[in-house]
Amino acid sequence: MKLYFNGCSFTHGEELDNPQKDSWPSLVSANLKFDFLNDAVSGGTNDRTMYKTIQNINRYDYFVIAWTFYARFTEYNPVDNFEINFNPGLVMDPSFHYSNDLKINYAKFKDYGTLYYKHWYNELFEFKKWLQQIILLQSFFKLKNKSFLMINTSQNNLPVFLQHQEKFISATRHLLDFFDYLNDEQILNECTQIQELNSMIDTSTFIGWNKYSMAELSTGCKVGPNGHFLEDGHIKVADKVIECYNKTI
Fold first, then answer.
1. 123: part of which helix (H) or strand (E)?
2. Fewer CB within 10 Å, N- or C-terminus of the chain?
3. pTM higher than 0.90 for the full model?
4. Which of 140, 146, 152 is nearest to 240 (CA)?
5. Are strands 62-67 and 147-152 parallel, antiparallel or unpaired?
6. Could you read off the pLDDT of 119-165 as tens digits, one per residue?
7. Which of 39, 67, 64, 37 minimizes the C-alpha distance to 243?
């Protein structure tokens, strides 16, 4: 059995002294005695996770997907075709060190990211796109007869967006910059669309859908200076993944 993991820094093992040994994918694989690839990177996005997972679909037997913050996105630099992961903080991805011209490409990154997050980022659309990504990747796994588990790195505003109609308007007001441009009927139509998408998700393959995330599983654990849980947090996440894996076989 060959395992495949993907996600962001919380899956990669950011801030661990030895992520190759102590990250939760490594712990899971060691416990199960399986070969594995941890394909997660710091700053990873859901776009990247889908892209890389589909590329690797025929190379692995079991997939564990850790969905990250939906505000992030990935582009490929037309100068050198290098992967660039964008985030609202516009933190420079270490991959820029491999670009042909660091200063030029970093300036492009900042300009494009600033423009996008200031003028084009839409919280509602990104949330719905993320639900679609989950549905599509689950369907693809089933088409290819691949076993899989999914987990959320954070709750990604699920408790807010999954409110029923009577609470949806008041719950989402603070998230939607365009709220005052929509009437109640339009907003409730968005609620209906979200509920329909949610109903298509196979929650039996999800570790705690709308109940908890990796961040919550590691509550009370030590974290590094940048907020990533450390060894004891990775042990807690690994234990949960192993528990859920054993229920699927």
1. helix 123-143
2. C
3. yes
4. 152
5. parallel
6. 999 999 999 999 999 999 999 999 999 999 999 999 999 999 999 99
7. 64
